[in-house]
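step 4 of 6: structure.
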Amino acid sequence: MTTPTNPDPTCENVGERLLEFRDGSLPPAEHEWLRQHLHACPNCLTLLDSYDQAVEVVQRLQPVDIPEGMMERVRLRLEGRGGGRGGGAGPA
Amino acid sequence: MPCCLLDDPPESRASPMANDVPEALAPATLLERYGERIYGLARRLTGNDVDAEDVLQATLVKVLERARDFRGESDPFGWIYRITLNEAREVFRRRARRPAVSLDALPMEVEDDGHFATAFRTLPTPPDSGPITDEVKRCVREAIEELPDGYRETVVLVDLEGLGYAEAAQLLDLHINAFKTRLHRARLHLRNRLQDFWDARQGRKPRHR
């Protein structure tokens, strides 16, 4: 059995692992290695912070609005088997 | 990239005597029960109302065509999700779209010694629970649209639809590690585009793209 070794302490290797660092799924030794790098490297720490900010912005996009009348159009096309975009098959 | 998710709905294989349509997939209830969820996913994948309506229509037609084959005993939405993903890919293939960015590697410049070439900046964030401006929404949507298919879907499924990694990876037929790599690179791309957006607002030269 081999002992896992941490990757080279480069910013690129840190950048590849931010998702797993955030969700806590890195092996403990690798998590600690990355935590120490972030403590010593302000640029990577800023990358992590801004990564979190970007994810938050995406997750806070408003729910999708259903256009008025759209569901009724689709229902009619399904019932009528045609008469609009994508019409083809319908209820058996 | 799998292109034929519809060929073998996993729940359909075990029952050669399948001929009853599950109540949830009956024509009278399908649109009412799943229409908004399908449309929501389609809208987020395609980025516009017209394409999303096309995807909804095509997905419903496909589900109705194949409903007799579905033998799952649980909520069939996982199966419907796959069909919706496939139909959205078809729409993307047919229409003119923003050129997809390449995300085979980290979407940021790296020096020979493995350190990043440029300094990162934190992003302005809206106040807690406050609305996100239309400009920022447009920036994020454009950035999502220019992701390659297999990357865009990871962000939509996890960050917008709220699925877990394992569930989303299964829907996309990806190993969990491959899924996480794609999601991570897609998020980094979105981060970079947001920084470019704010840099431009502040008169700085964009560093990415």
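step 5 of 6: annotate
 - Chain B touches chain A through 58 residues (CB under 8 Å).
 - Residues 47 and 141 of chain B are 7 Å apart (CA to CA).
step 6 of 6: archive
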